[in-house]
Amino acid sequence: MPKSENQKLKLLILADLLRRETDEDHGISMNEILARLENEGIHAERKSVYDDIRTLEDYGMDIVSTRGRTGSYRLVHRAFELPELKLLVDAVQSCRFLSAKKSRELIHKLEGLTSRHEAQSLQRQVYAVGRVKSMNESIYYSIDMIHAAISQDKQIAFRYFEWTPEKKIRLRHDGRIYRRSPYALVWDSENYYLVAYDHTASPPGIRHYRVDKMRDLSVCSAPRLGQELFSDFDMAEYASSRFGMFGGTPQPVELRFAAHLSGVVFDRFGKDVIVLPGQDGSFRIHVDAVISPQFMGWLSGFGADAQLLGPPEAVEEYVRFCEKMLAQYK
Prior knowledge:
Helices cover 38% and strands 23% of the residues. It is of the alpha+beta class.
C-alpha cells in the first residue's frame, strides 16, 4: 500500500496506540509514536502528530501530555474504569452458564478495553465455590437468538435434552421438536431459563426451560402466541416462587425462621416481604411458593431454625419428604 494511502489511517492508528499503550501510569513519547507509525509504513512529522492529538481531544479522548525531555502522552479516561473491568472479569470467570472456552474468549475481549499494562491485572483466576462450568458451548449464541426472537415477536423451535450418568446427551420426547413462544430469560440459581408460552400443551400455559439444555435452536416465521397471559405477568414473582425454577403451581405458605436468618430470607424473597415478629426472637412470613423437592430441601437445610407452618397439606408433604430422606439411613 503506498504511503500516501497509509496517511489516511494515521489518525486511527494513533488513537489505537494511545488506547493500547497508555493509561494513567504509562505514557508514550513523541519519538515512540513516530517510530510506531513508521513501522506501519506511515512517515509523519511532529507537527502533524500534534494536530492529530488535538483532533482526538476534540473528539472526546482525554489525553494528558507532559512536557520536557521525558514528555509523553497518556489516555487517562476510558468507557470502563479498571475496577469496573475487574468486576466484569470476575463475573464472567465465575458465571456457571458460560463454558470455560467462552469465558476465556470474553475475558480476552474485555482486556482489549484497557491498556496492555492494565490488562495484565485482569488475567487472574477467580475461585468460585460450587460453580461448575456449562458443558454446552452453544448457550452463548442461544441466548442471543432467543433475545432476537422476542424482539421480532417470533416463535422458536428447539430440541431439549438431559445428561445421562454416562455423560451422554439424551434427547427428551424422542428428539421431538419443541415449538414455543419466548417471552423472557430468567437467571436463577446460576442458570439461564427461558420463560415461554406452550400452545401444544393441554391445557396451554406458561413453561420454562434451561437454555443450556437446548440444542438445534432456530427462530420460526410464526408469530408468538399467548400475549394475553403476559400482559400483566410478574416475571420476578414467577421466578422467586419457583426454587431452582422447579415447575408447579405456587400456593400461599407460612414459614417461621430464627432471627439470624433474616438476611437469607430477604435474599430469597426480597425486602418487601412482611415480617411478623415472634415472642421467642423468631419471625414468620407469608409467601407464595411451589412445594417442590428444591423448596423443601432449601428449607430443611436450616434445620430447627426454620419451620413450615402451613397450610396443613403442605406440612404433610414436607413431613413425608423428611421421612423419606431419613429412611435411607435406617
